C-alpha cells in the first residue's frame, strides 16, 4: 500500500460518539501529522506526533503512534457535526528538510446530528 | 493569526491559455509548496521552493509549470499552456519560520479552483 494510507475509507457516526481512524506507512519517519479537509476546501493541520512519542492529546483529539507497526491512529472524542470532513495522515516521505508531504486517500468522516 | 492566502479563488480558462495562480505565504516562512487535488482524488505534491530555487518537484511538474517568488511576498505557479487535465484545486503551503518555528507544520491556503474548458 502507499504511504499514509488511512482506514477506514469512510466512517459514519452519530454526534457524541467517538471516531477512530487508522493510518499505516512504509518508511521510517521523524514525525507524523494529521490534517483535516472540509469538503474540498483548504487543509488544516490538526496534530503532530514525533517518532519518539507514543501518544499525544490536543483537545478532543488523541493520536497514537506505533513505530514498530508503522501505524498511527486518530481518535476524536465526543464528535460533533462540525467534525464532518476528510482526515489525512501525512509525513515527510522524502526524509529531507524540504518537507514534501505525501497524502493518502484519507478517511471521510460523517457525523450525523 | 497569520495565514496563507491565494487568489483567485476560482479561475476559468480555455485550453492552451496561460494561467498564473497567486499565493501569499506567511511572511516569515522560508519553505513554499504547491499541491493539487483533482476532484475526487488525492492531494498531490507538485513542487517545493526554498532559498529562491526549486528544491524538489514531482513528475507532474513538467516544463509547462513554473514557480516564482517575484517580490519576496508573492509565490506564483504558472501553467504555460493549460490542458483539460490541469483542472483541479491548487493549494499553496508554507512553513519554517526564520525563528525556527513551524518547522514541521505546513500551513495551507484555501486553494484556487482551476477549470480548463
What do the pLDDT scores of chain B average to? 92
Low-confidence stretches of chain B: none
Residues in β-strands, percent of chain A: over 45%
Largest sheet of chain B: 7 strands, mixed
Shape call of chain B:
globular
What is the mean pLDDT of chain A? Answer: 87
Task: Specify the number of helices of chain B.
Answer: 0
For the secondary structure, the number of strands of chain B is 11
Helix content of chain A: under 10%
How would you explain this protein's 3D organization?
The complex is a heterodimer of chains A (113) and B (117). Chain A has strands at residues 5-7, 10-14, 19-24, 31-37, 43-50, 55-58, 61-66, 71-76, 85-92, 101-102, 107-112. Chain A is mostly beta strands and 113 residues long. In chain A, strand 4 and strand 5 form a beta hairpin. The radius of gyration of chain A is 13 Å and the shape is globular. The relative contact order of chain A is 0.34. Chain B has strands at 5-7, 10-13, 19-24, 29-37, 43-50, 53-57, 65-68, 75-79, 88-97, 107-108, 112-116. Chain B contains no helices and eleven strands. The termini of chain B are far apart. Chain B is an all-beta fold. In chain B, 0% of the residues lie in helices and 52% in strands. Chain A binds chain B through residues 31, 33, 35, 37, 40-45, 48, 88, 92, 94, 96, 98-106, and chain B through 31, 33, 35, 37, 39, 42-45, 48, 50, 55-56, 89, 91, 93, 95-96, 104-111.
Amino acid at each position: 500500500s502507499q504511504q499514509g494510507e488511512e482506514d477506514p475509507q469512510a466512517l459514519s457516526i452519530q454526534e457524541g460518539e467517538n471516531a477512530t481512524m487508522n493510518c499505516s506507512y512504509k518508511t521510517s519517519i521523524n514525525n507524523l501529522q494529521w490534517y483535516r479537509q472540509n469538503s474540498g476546501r483548504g487543509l488544516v493541520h490538526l496534530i503532530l506526533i514525533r517518532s519518539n512519542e507514543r501518544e499525544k492529546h490536543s483537545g478532543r483529539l488523541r493520536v497514537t503512534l506505533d513505530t514498530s507497526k508503522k501505524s498511527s491512529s486518530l481518535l476524536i472524542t465526543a464528535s460533533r457535526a462540525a467534525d464532518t470532513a476528510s482526515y489525512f495522515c501525512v509525513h515527510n516521505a522524502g526524509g529531507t528538510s524540504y518537507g514534501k508531504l505525501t497524502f493518502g486517500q484519507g478517511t471521510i468522516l460523517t457525523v450525523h446530528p | 493569526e497569520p495565514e496563507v492566502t491565494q487568489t483567485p479563488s476560482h479561475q476559468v480558462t480555455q485550453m492552451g491559455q496561460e494561467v498564473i495562480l497567486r499565493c501569499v505565504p506567511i511572511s516569515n516562512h522560508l519553505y513554499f509548496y504547491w499541491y493539487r487535488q483533482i476532484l475526487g482524488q488525492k492531494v498531490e505534491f507538485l513542487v517545493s521552493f526554498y532559498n529562491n530555487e526549486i528544491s524538489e518537484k514531482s513528475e507532474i511538474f513538467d516544463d509547462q509549470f513554473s514557480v516564482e517568488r517575484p517580490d519576496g511576498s508573492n509565490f506564483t505557479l504558472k501553467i504555460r499552456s493549460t490542458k483539460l487535465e490541469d483542472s483541479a484545486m491548487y493549494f499553496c503551503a508554507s512553513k519554517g519560520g526564520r525563528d525556527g518555528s513551524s518547522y514541521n507544520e505546513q500551513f495551507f491556503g484555501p486553494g484556487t479552483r482551476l477549470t480548463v474548458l
